[in-house]
Amino acid sequence: MVSSRHSAVFVAATAALTFTASACTESGTTPPDDVGSPPTPAEIVAAIADACPMGDPGDASARRACAEKLRDAEPLRAILGSEVVWGGHRADHPSWNPAVHHTTRFNPRVWRMMYLSQFMFTGEFTVETEGSFTAIRMKTSFRRDMDMGQYPYPLWHAPNKWAAHLDATEIVLVLRNGELVAGYRFGSDTTQPRVEHTWDGRWTWENEGVTEPRVALFTYILSPTNPHLEALNDAYRTLEEEFRSESCLDCHSPDNPEDMTPLVILAYPNQALGDRHMLVDVLEINEMPPADEEAGTPMGLDEDHRAMLLTLAKEFARVGDEALAFEGESTP
Ligand code: HEC
Fold first, then answer.
1. 140 and 280: one domain?
2. Which of 44, 123, 175, 225 could form a disulfide with 49 if both were Cys (CB 3.0 to 4.6 A apart)?
């Protein structure tokens, strides 16, 4: 039924039932005839809608349950590569190609637990193809009423960014050769309820002894039993101090003053995790910070600082690999 048309509307409920039922008869294991076959769009959407159904947009425990189910959802895991790029889909640019959109790069576990879980899904979807891209367009609604610490960072730092989340009508997953290459927030229904937040200029803040946003901490994406949790946090915090003193966070923060795409966010633990190996590469060739012609400073760091940051970055990358391997994530 899907193959005959390029764009068609489906409701995933039937697929969801079929999928759940077949998984149950095998006591939670994949039926043998499914081994190796890539998940269909219907299976992917059913898994996401089952994990994150429509409900109260302020319910933090429903969001947490959604994050945990997305973490484990096999049809979603099956399409994930080593990174996910995620962003708003520009209305003026119809292509699904991530090269023409402004995106941010994440580790796939971080993306699905922290970012995708901010949305609720009806199970309705359409499928489109554009060259080698397959776009799965899922109807969605944003969890607009959560506490501020439940969002990956203060999305309201730019009013249009927050509005784009509040008004989004679809999440689009773009696949190429069966692998997810981008996720987009799409559409704008401005009749949806408004929620006002004012940014006070801080990316992080304290709330009853917890650093906020709490979803950006490693404790949100790693199990409490993960033996590498503390070492990973220590490695990041040591590195973060150096990022600050070397002005890395002037550019590698959500406001993205240099307009880099994909954006590399180093200002939060979880967001930085996906860039741990790239960080080592960049420091090895001494490519950051970029040269500043106005200030007359050359590209890179002086040798002492470069060597120190490189040692810290290698430690972060090593412990990050171990922590993710413990969770059963592939660690490129
Ligand atoms: C003046 C702004 C600015 C500063 C300061 C800065 N960066 Fe960057 N960084 C960029 C831009 C722009 C890019 C993307 C384009 C590029 O590679 O030049 C980037 C890319 C990167 C990447 C990804 C490279 C890739 O190949 O994808 C890493 C990792 C990185 N920077 C780390 C750092 C670190 C570590 C520091 C501090 C020592 C730093 N940056 C300071 C602007 C900056």
1. no
2. 123
Ligand 1 contacts CB of residue 247 (under 6 A): yes
Q: Hey, whose CA ends up nearest to atom 36 of ligand 1?
A: 248
Q: Which atom of ligand 1 is nearest to the CA of 292?
A: 1
Helices (H), 222-291: 229-245, 248-251, 269-273, 276-284
156 and 243 inside one domain = no
pLDDT tens across the length of the chain (332 residues): 333 334 444 544 333 333 333 333 333 444 445 557 899 999 999 999 999 999 999 999 999 999 999 999 999 999 999 999 999 998 888 899 999 999 999 999 999 999 999 999 999 999 999 999 999 999 999 999 999 999 999 999 999 999 999 999 999 999 999 999 999 999 999 999 999 999 999 999 999 999 999 999 999 999 999 999 999 999 999 999 999 999 999 999 999 999 999 999 999 999 999 999 999 999 999 999 999 999 999 999 999 999 999 999 999 999 999 999 999 997 66
Range of the domain at 162: 9-186
Q: Is the CB of 327 under 6 A from ligand 1?
A: no
Question: Which residue has the least CA distance to atom 1 on ligand 1?
Answer: 251
279 CA from centroid of ligand 1 (Å): 9
Which residues is 121 bridged to in the sheet? 53, 140
Nearest-CA residue for ligand 1 atom 37 is 248
* 35 and 164 belong to one structural domain: yes
Secondary structure string (H, E, C) spanning 7-53: CCEEECHHHHHHHHHHHHHCCCCCCHHHCCCCCCHHHHHHHHHHHCE
Our mutation pick for probing the ligand 1 site, out of 242, 278, 288, counting the most ligand atoms within 8 A of Cβ, is 288
Of 317, 309, 151, 168, nearest to 240 (Cα)? 309
- The amino acid at residue 36 is G
Which ligand 1 atom lies nearest to the CA of residue 281?
29
pTM assigned to the model: 0.90
Q: Tell whether 112 is covered by a domain.
A: yes
Residue 221 lies in a domain: yes
One domain for residues 274 and 154? no
